[in-house]
Design brief:
This protein has nine helices and no strands. It is mainly alpha-helical. The chain starts with 6 loop residues before the first helix and ends with a helix. The relative contact order is 0.12.
């Protein structure tokens, strides 16, 4: 197995980059963050690409696009202390990333057909919608009028991503389902912590909790997506459909 496809090596590099980003945030080193934060998504995107390229279906392309726009968002947010407009650029990039993930998960749902687990999925989705509504209701009055609408739209998009991940139940392998759903929930957690720290109440722990939950979220989503497409049964199913 080549270096680019080696899971242990790439996850180790990803973890080291995540730790470096957290360290940079804790000690206030912009230089360390500038190096390590983009490296996280570069390593993860490369590992995902080289492991999924032989599949190359719409689902993997959408996840790859989500990782790319997440990288763009990370880079933009790194420079928000220089120009606050970079915050809006980062928000827009992550909005596109969430939509890519959501469409990818919806592709799984449509491809998987009916499921007997839709009631469970619906309960999770309703819970996420309720959380998004009440959190936005608490948050939006505290933000400036110029960014209230973009933040509201983004909140809706990330909750949609979580709901779409929930509805994969019964349409993918349980390991993939759990990894992607937990990743989606951690993504929502990370963004919630970021919003609380920025707009509601500064939190000392935000300097490491935001990056830790975000890093775990992206890893679980990408890894869970690979579990789905690289499962031997899934490979045989696609081969049968293509004949």
């Amino acid at each position: 197995m080549g270096i680019t496809k080696n899971t242990a090596l790439n996850i180790g590099l990803y973890g080291a980059a995540c730790l470096g980003t957290i360290t940079g945030e804790m000690i206030g080193s912009h230089a360390l963050v500038y190096v390590c934060k983009p490296l996280m998504l570069i390593v993860l995107s490369s590992w995902f690409f080289f492991n999924s390229r032989r599949v190359g279906d719409r689902f993997t392309l959408l996840i790859q696009a989500g990782l790319f726009f997440s990288l763009v968002g990370d880079v933009a947010l790194m420079f928000q202390h220089i120009d606050q407009f970079n915050f809006l650029i980062g928000l827009a990039a992550f909005l596109v990333a969430q939509l890519c993930y959501s469409i990818g998960f919806i592709h799984n749902i449509v491809d998987g057909g009916p499921s007997r687990s839709d009631l469970i999925s619906a309960i999770i989705a309703v819970g996420l919608a309720a959380y998004g509504y009440f959190f936005a209701d608490m948050l939006l009055p505290k933000v400036g009028d110029g960014i209230a609408i973009p933040i509201g739209v983004y909140a809706g998009a990330i909750c949609l991503m979580g709901a779409a991940a929930a509805f994969r139940l019964g349409r993918t392998y349980m390991r993939s389902y759990i990894m992607v759903l937990v990743g989606a929930l951690l993504f929502i957690t990370s963004d919630s912590l970021l919003a609380i720290n920025r707009f509601l109440e500064p939190m000392e722990s935000a300097r490491w909790t935001v990056t830790l939950t975000y890093g775990a979220a992206q890893l679980l989503i990408a890894w869970g997506a690979l579990v789905h497409v690289l499962d031997p049964d899934e490979i045989r199913r696609r081969a049968a459909l293509s004949t």
